[in-house]
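User: Hey, my collaborator sent me this sequence without any context and asked if I could get a structure. I don't really work with proteins. Can you help?
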Amino acid sequence: MEVQETILRVAITGNPNCGKTSVFNALTGLNQQVGNYAGTTVDKKTGVLVYNKSQRAKIIDLPGTYSIYPKSKDEEIAIDVIINPLSKEASDIILVVCDASNLKRNLLYYSQVSDLGKPVVLVLTMMDIAEKKGLDINLIVLSLLLGVKVVAVNPRNGKGIEKLKDTIFNTSRLTQNKLIDIYNLAPELIEEQRKRHPNFNDFQCFLEIYKTQREKLDGILADETIKRYAAIKVVLNESVTQREVKQSELSNNLDKILTHKIWGYVIFLFILFVIFESIFSVSKFPMLWIQQSFTWFGNYFAQHFPEGPLNDLLVHGVIAGLSGVIVFLPQIVSLFAFIAILEDTGYMSRVSFMMDKLMRRVGMNGKSVVPLISGVACAVPSIMATRSIENWKERIITIMVIPLMSCSARLPVYTLLISMIAPDKNIWGIFNVQGLILMGMYLIGFFSAITAAWVMKFVIQAKEKNYFILELPTYKAPRLKNILITLVEKSRTFIWEAGKVIVAVSVILWLAASFGPGKSFAKIEEKYSSEFYTKNFSSKEIVNFQKSEKLFASYAGHFGRLIEPAIKPLGFDWKIGIALFSSLAAREVFVGTMATIYNLGDESSSVNIRERMMEERDPVTLKPKYTLTVAFSLMLFYAFALQCMSTIATVYKETKTWKWATIQFIYTSSLAYIMSLVVYQLFK
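Assistant: No problem. I've predicted the 3D structure and written it out in structure-token form, which is a compact way to encode the shape of the chain:
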């Protein structure tokens, strides 16, 4: 007889920086996927916990929130999942994660969630920090006073995780103790709601009043918070004892240095320098291995598959296009790894605090810092992250300038061009030339974003004041498991998302480059079959001549020459024009397109794209095409241009209008053209 499988739905919620994601990672491991909440663009992480052959749980990691009364859009989504029984994400069990070292504040949110009457498990993290603070928490007493199961865990070493798994699958609907009587705060209003919603309990009715008649709760919400804290104090007095301990000054001393008004910025720049220096040095050998692997695959398919259009499409189209981008995966993974480490240690919160004053001067606030810095990885989730910014105008300014931050999709373009114009050597023994140039490109993006925000501050007239409240998490050693899970997830997303676009573009580009109007290709074949060429050139040279001339006469060549007059003042030719157009879908497609274009001119798939581009000569001057000036002009174009359809679509979804997406595309494209034009014309 087949055993029926039981699938529980479990939501993990709690205050920001309480360890929710660490608990989520410990429960699900690599059984995770990233998607969006129904009808929104807010990121959600879901995972699967396999308990035994017949029991498993679908676990969702909700955005952090301080209260069940949301103040930002991402908090609204998280709370809706918890309180709305009709939500597609409605859960059977709620895990409320609390920071044991800051239990009083964390229990405020727990008490609100508990009053919903759903099965709840209280999960305590950071017990080691609580112990260092001299806090002894009696879990049994705390469980009895609250009427719920309490589990202490340490996701770093896995302590308590197995007990938490057992608790999840053995938790029934308990009679959870209510810390306050919410009915007495608004009896008439609650009675009125109960007539409309007979299945709601008192607190659910209270929340319905908050959603529909918020003005009637003026003053009552503050009274509710005071009563909850008073009740929490009684619970903590019974379950927690405070020992006298010698307080460590390490955290305060570190903050004095890392958030210093001068040295804080110097240290931040130094950290950025280390990151960009390391991106080249750490990734060198993995990139070589990936490049050699693609070369082997290309040669294998070329030799073992029947000759013809399909072979040509696979070798010179798909494989060449993919190899041009996937080879840069080690550098992108390195960038993600450094960002994950900075977030896991608690340093990113310090950067937000430190940059708040600067952000306010240009029309944003400290909450804009995390989306901006996250934009170094990808603009799409960064724009979604602006939902935490309550002030609408500050949020719009942040959204509008995020694409100016150099994202990981630009990294393949920068790396390719920098490796062509800059030697791989050190200055004074420690400063790698390529790393310095790469850091310079990222700084250009940052200062451009700041400048653009300052201009928009006056254009959009963002005069409303907003408070920036930030809780600095304690310093922690980065958790290897969390970082590895992040890298696997990001790499998988990059390969899948970029791969789909690159394959599609490669196929279209191959078709456009392999066929031409009229009988142009037949005439080229006839030309090179003449006695002059067969006597004076080898068959390999004739094939290369044919492919080069066919590319020029192809539909792609015609399109490239059509737009060449517009981009020639920037130092670009028709081949670059084709790549610029194809990379409108995604910036990283530029490298794949160039790889496809240059592979079409050579029968060998083993030729390195960098070497082929360096061999390119200007047809007029016969000098190298990709000079220092051309390379910088091209890098600046990609530094400013909004060549990412996903970003444009996300801006539209977030602002609910094409107005801001259109303005953003026009101003970034204009800025890219002007900056490239100025640089090339001044220094050519």
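In plain terms: The chain has a mean pLDDT of 80. You can pass these tokens on to your collaborator as they are.
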